[in-house]
Amino acid sequence: MTERTAKLTLDDGQTIDLPVLEGTEHEKAVDVSSLRKSTGYITYDDGFVNTGCCTSTITYIDGENGILRHRGYPIEDLAESCTFTEAAYLLIYGELPTRPEARAFTDRLSEHSDIHEDMKHFFTGYPSGAHPMSIMSAMVTSLSTFHPTVRDEDWTFDETAARLIAKVRTIAAFSYRKASGKPYIYPRADLNYASNFLNMMFSGDGEDYEINPVLVRALTRVLILHADHEQNCSTSAVRLVGSSRANLYASIGAGISALSGPLHGGAAQGVVEMLLKIQADGNDVDKYVAMAKDKDDPFRLMGFGHRVYKNYDPRAKIIKGACDQVFDDLQINDPLLDIAKKLEKVALEDEYFVERSLYPNVDFYSGILYRSMGIPVNMFTVIFAIGRLPGWIAHWRESSQDPEWKIWRPRQIYNGAVARKIVPMDER
Ligand code: CMC
Question: N or C: which terminus of the chain carries fewer CB neighbours within 10 A?
């Protein structure tokens, strides 16, 4: 709260002074929480384009300048220097772990990596073509039936958080193994987070699988890059569901469902499907750029544009670099990368995209990177979910610890029929 106020004058003669808030990075907001009580008016902001729903100490984004920091640390530094579990610890607990804290955290993850034998039967109940995001959201919500908790109080929180971070990776790998008709590979305590996931996905296929350190590093980076992004659709969903005091599993299940949409986490899958279409269409990039600009065509360039970034998404820059490095190190040649780069170049020089500040977002290059790891397209959003989980947990915890915690309950402007009488059916 600052000393400053904003004066709102309504045309019915009412005037109200509203407090002005200022964040540590000098973001400013007008606090309208007293508006309705004082004037009878609410604020209207379709899609929450201009609405802050909470204060938070977790993540700072400056979309105009392409800046992203978690707990004060630039995303570039975290992606370069940290493991995924260190970044997860930072998001959830507020500081990077000391060596003993990091050890205790990874031990706790190892302890919780496996899933209950009975839960493994669930995988056989899903139809063979089931999308792994639907499986993941159902399995995560089901975890609360195996580890019942009314509300994760402080003393159970650490266990519940670790259980989720450890188990989503196992659930994801098992859903892939089941869909491919392959036996499950169990988690190993001697492997780090990303290696363990790749091992559960791909080892035991008959040939000698070796975990490639280049891919482990790339996957670690991608997971860190996805770890939090303040009030995106899925994180706000987690906060919203958690605000009713629903437990952590239920809240995360909601986050996974929100993430599955093609405008959110589903975009990486959409990007690769789009690039494959362009390839099948003779690499005609210009045609797809024209379609994206055509207001009569619902097609949009997937992996382009962002509600907050009006500049190059810093995560996209790092993933593009990681792609180049992996392709170089492993001598991979994927024509989709060339199409993506051409598409980016054409779009960034096009007036339509320039005028609207539409740049590649985090999903533009991530799918191409996943392909180089052998991860199938329908698993892309699942990787996003594994990465985003620490952020969801951090936000759930932060909102749970808010002394002024209240249930989230937006209002609306009703635009329907006014009061009327029911006419008997024969007279309608
Ligand atoms: N292709 C073509 N036009 C676009 C695109 C695009 N990808 N994105 C935005 N526009 C246009 C849009 O038509 C509108 O034009 P106009 O002003 O003439 O009506 C203008 O740009 C502003 O778009 P908007 O839809 O009002 O912006 P938004 O902030 O509501 O939507 C978005 C953001 C990410 C949903 C949108 O850019 C989009 O649909 N992108 C493609 C899907 C995608 O890549 N999603 C991943 C987002 S990043 C990962 C995550 O956090 O989930």
Answer: C
